UniProtKB/TrEMBL annotation:
Pfam families: Methyltransf_31 (PF13847). The keyword Cell division does not apply. CDD domains: AdoMet_MTases. This is RNA methylase. One of its GO terms (molecular function) is rRNA (adenine-N6,N6-)-dimethyltransferase activity. PANTHER family: PROTEIN ARGININE N-METHYLTRANSFERASE, PROTEIN ARGININE N-METHYLTRANSFERASE 3. InterPro entries: Arg_MeTrfase (IPR025799), Methyltranfer_dom (IPR025714), rRNA_Ade_Mease_Trfase_CS (IPR020596), SAM-dependent_MTases_sf (IPR029063). Keywords: Methyltransferase, Transferase. Residues 38-143 form the Methyltransferase domain.
């Protein structure tokens, strides 16, 4: 099937690892199939995957151009309804068996996944499920050439520490968007440290895990104050941000 898309969603569709991971997770879903919500549905590709499994699919998209594309792509399927609206303003009237919400970003900082799920989770059945199920955030101490916040595409940096799994977020639970943690890095190389690299791994279900891809949670490089480090040093950094409120909320401090 050919899909109408915006230019941005066309790039998302070309990310085969991202699309195939969600397809596999939806295909493996084996619980009740009365109703699924696709929140932030974009051009509707995940709703397309859901349509053959569920009696009813409600797809909500805030962007009018993307919503129009989704409506055109899914108009032949009587069990799919596309709504052009902010999920946070939508008047939910039914509880779903499954919520799919791919409003993802590295560490959930720059998209409203947390706010949307904290709202929509009230309209999930008692035994309902959410895709994705969880994320794991990983941090590494780095020396980077560009001393400002940026994603790692075409970036030059050197990793100076072991990887630290600094947080895991369960999408089924209420999520506090205000994040703050002191992270201790063990240095494995003599250098000047001036940043941390944040990598997010997405757990779609118990069997499907998707690491970063070019269009799905690309690693984020965040500056810290420069500090000379030696192998086996322990460097403590306070990392603070507000999920869903943008990368401008990120703060770091060497302790």
């Amino acid at each position: 099937m050919k899909f109408q898309t915006t230019s941005y969603h066309f790039d998302l569709l070309k990310d085969n690892d991202r699309v195939s991971s969600f397809f596999e997770a939806i295909s493996q879903y084996d619980s009740s199939t009365d109703l699924a919500y696709d929140l932030g549905c974009g051009s509707g590709v995940l709703s397309y995957f859901l349509k053959d499994k569920f009696d009813e699919v409600i797809s909500i998209e805030i962007d009018s151009d993307a919503s129009k594309c989704a409506s055109n792509n899914l108009e032949k399927f009587e069990n799919v309804t596309v709504i052009n609206e902010d999920v946070l303003n939508h008047d939910f009237t039914k509880k779903a068996d499954l919520i799919v919400c791919e409003m993802m970003d590295t560490a959930l900082i720059d998209e409203e996944e947390v706010q949307v799920l904290n709202h929509a989770r009230n309209f999930l059945k008692e035994n309902g499920e959410i895709i994705p199920k969880a994320i794991v955030n990983i941090a590494e101490l780095v020396h980077m050439q560009r001393h400002y916040i940026h994603w790692d595409e075409n970036a030059s940096y050197e990793i100076l520490s072991d990887s630290i799994n600094y947080s895991k977020i369960n999408m089924m639970e209420e999520i506090n968007p205000n994040f703050e943690k002191n992270i201790e890095f063990k240095v494995n190389k003599n250098h000047i440290a001036n940043g941390i690299k944040i990598t997010t791994v997405t757990i779609l279900n118990d069997d499907v895990v998707c690491g970063p891809t070019p269009m799905f949670n690309p690693p984020l490089l965040v500056p810290i104050d420069e500090i000379n480090v030696k192998c086996n040093d322990l460097i403590n950094v306070k990392l603070k941000y507000i999920m869903g409120q943008g990368i401008e909320t990120i703060e770091t401090k060497i302790l």
